[in-house]
């Protein structure tokens, strides 16, 4: 524990929680479904809040009483100390000041006094990647006993192997994890380095197509009524297209969404009227959205909420007029979580 402003931190955290309870406004019900998922996933707009969230996660919200004993990563602690200036005397985060200081960091491509969608997307994606990397680094530290920066299969699976024995799960699961490991292990040396471990832990956000294929095969298996390992048009329309449409409604703002026939024809590269795992690769991020996908949706959301003059980009005034939008956990509180969407996520995290 360094000289971090712990008193401020606690207050800031309480304020974040209060903010997260304020009801968001919705302009377009098309977005609700994706929005609901977004609320649980996206990294915060402000990296400082990201740091605070990590702290909260690592220490547990209930530990306010033992604040002095917070276990803080040194880099996190340093950064928070440096952010002390943003906290007002009563410990509240001065959001206005934060936004004024963040604005020039986003307004870069081009630097023109506006934040456009691309700039905001790039920023949010950086925040998501930052968070993923932080978590991966932590896992590496935890598992890499000899500190040589690479993990064997046993080291990667260790907690879940204990789990396996205890829960008497199907031996199949081990096979699945082994395959996931093999796919993540790009150079095939039987060990995962940091970037390979990142893919292993965050398959949906990885760019590794073999990992995607393993996931898509699983998904297709569930949608494939005639069990031929491929999707015909009816199988595609019944499930995969519905998921696609939910996302497309968000992406296209509800207009001009490709029809099932059109989307199917787009994907069916060899015109055999069947979609293979490889042909489904372009839909990976809709079927398995990861933090990066949500970061991009979040950028669209922020523009929609704050763009008062509807020119598709944000001025600092528009942002300051909608401060709370940038600092609330936008969707979380309005909808409950009895939703079918988190199935694969839970699968992944619980196993691990
Ligand atoms: C927050 O920061 C802004 C901009 O620096 C400043 O004008 C304002 O007085 C600050 N608010 C408080 C309550 O300190
Ligand atoms: C790193 O350590 C693991 C065991 O923890 C070992 O299997 C592996 O060979 C080591 N890797 C390198 C590159 O030395
Ligand atoms: C990990 O190994 C892969 C495959 O050999 C390589 O492309 C990548 O740059 C390595 N990453 C790190 C962080 O060393």
UniProtKB/TrEMBL annotation:
Keyword vocabulary terms for this entry: Calcium, Metal-binding, Repeat, Signal
Matching InterPro entries: EF-hand-dom_pair, EF_Hand_1_Ca_BS, EF_hand_dom
Signal peptide positions on this chain: 1-27
GO MF annotation list: calcium ion binding
GO cellular component: endoplasmic reticulum
Domain named EF-hand: residues: 172-207, 211-246
Keyword hit for RNA-binding: no
Protein name as annotated: EF-hand domain-containing protein
């Amino acid at each position: 524990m360094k000289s971090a402003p712990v008193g401020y931190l606690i207050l800031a955290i309480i304020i974040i929680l209060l903010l997260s309870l304020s009801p968001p406004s919705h302009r377009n019900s098309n977005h609700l479904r994706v929005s609901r998922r977004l609320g649980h996933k996206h990294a915060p707009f402000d990296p400082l809040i990201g740091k605070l969230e990590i702290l909260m996660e690592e220490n547990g919200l209930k530990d306010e009483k033992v604040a002095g004993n917070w276990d803080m990563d040194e880099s996190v602690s340093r950064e928070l100390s440096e952010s002390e200036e943003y906290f007002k005397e009563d410990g509240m985060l001065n959001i206005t000041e934060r936004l004024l200081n963040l604005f020039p960091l986003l307004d870069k491509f081009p630097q023109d006094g506006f934040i456009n969608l691309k700039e905001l997307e790039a920023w949010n994606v950086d925040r998501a990647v930052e968070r993923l990397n932080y978590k991966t680094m932590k896992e590496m530290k935890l598992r890499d006993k000899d500190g040589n920066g690479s993990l064997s299969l046993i080291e990667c699976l260790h907690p879940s192997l204990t789990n396996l024995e205890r829960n008497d799960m199907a031996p199949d699961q081990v096979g699945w994890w082994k395959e996931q490991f093999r796919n993540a292990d790009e150079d095939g040396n039987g060990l995962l380095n940091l970037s390979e471990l990142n893919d292993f832990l965050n398959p949906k956000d990885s760019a590794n197509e073999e990992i995607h294929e393993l996931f898509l095969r699983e998904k297709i298996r569930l949608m494939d009524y005639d069990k031929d390992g491929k999707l015909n048009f009816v199988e595609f329309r019944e499930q995969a297209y519905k998921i696609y449409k939910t996302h497309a409604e968000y992406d296209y703002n509800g207009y001009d969404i490709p029809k099932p026939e059109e989307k199917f024809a787009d994907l069916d590269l060899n015109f055999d009227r069947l979609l293979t795992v490889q042909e489904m690769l372009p839909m990976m991020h809709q079927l398995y959205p990861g933090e990066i996908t949500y970061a991009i949706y979040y950028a669209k959301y922020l523009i929609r909420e704050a763009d008062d003059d509807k020119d598709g980009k944000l001025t600092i005034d528009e942002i300051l007029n909608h401060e709370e939008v940038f600092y609330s956990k936008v969707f979380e509180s309005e909808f409950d979580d009895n939703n079918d969407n988190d199935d694969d996520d839970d699968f992944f995290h619980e196993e691990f």
